[in-house]
Each structure stands twice: as structure tokens, then as C-alpha cells.
Fold this sequence. Notes:
Layout: E1 2-3, E2 9-11, H1 17-57, H2 64-81, E3 84-89, E4 96-100
Antiparallel strand pairs: 1-2, 3-4
Helix pairs in contact: 1-2
Amino acid sequence: xxxxxxxxxxxxxxxxxxxxxxxxxxxxxxxxxxxxxxxxxxxxxxxxxxxxxxxxxxxxxxxxxxxxxxxxxxxxxxxxxxxxxxxxxxxxxxxxxxxxxx
Length: 102
């Protein structure tokens, strides 16, 4: 299997056992890329949660309402980063619901 300098696959010229090895190597690389993407999304979600918690605790006096809105947006973004596609909220009695894809 040949890779270009920027990491893209150049070509697969294989037959028989070599084709099976090349295909499994390609699948392994794809799984590694998916794992690193998912790990990065979890890191971004953790950052959003930490920032939201920091804002909730240290909200400036007189700006609590805008801080609550920002905290809610950061929470929803964090849910999106970890794979939730449906989010529901039900008024000031605070009933929330979230569903993952698939």
C-alpha cells in the first residue's frame, strides 16, 4: 500500500494474500482514524462541560441570565459532540431528555 506524503492513499496494487493483508491494513487505519476522531470529540465535550461549570460557578453579578443561556448552549454542544442527536427540554420544572443516534 502506498501513501502520499499528506497521508492519503496513493494506490493498492495487490492480488491474493497481499490484497487481503492490504485490505485489513486499510481497515485498521480507518478504525484508528475513527477512534482518534471520537477521542477528540470527547475532549471537546469535556472542555465545553468544564467551561460551562466554571461559568455557572463564577457568573458575574447582574449577568446571571446570559450566563445561564451560555451554559445551556455549551451543554447542548457537549451532548452533540458525544453523539446525542435528539435533545428535549420541558420548561422551568426542568425535565430534560436526550437520545443517541442509531
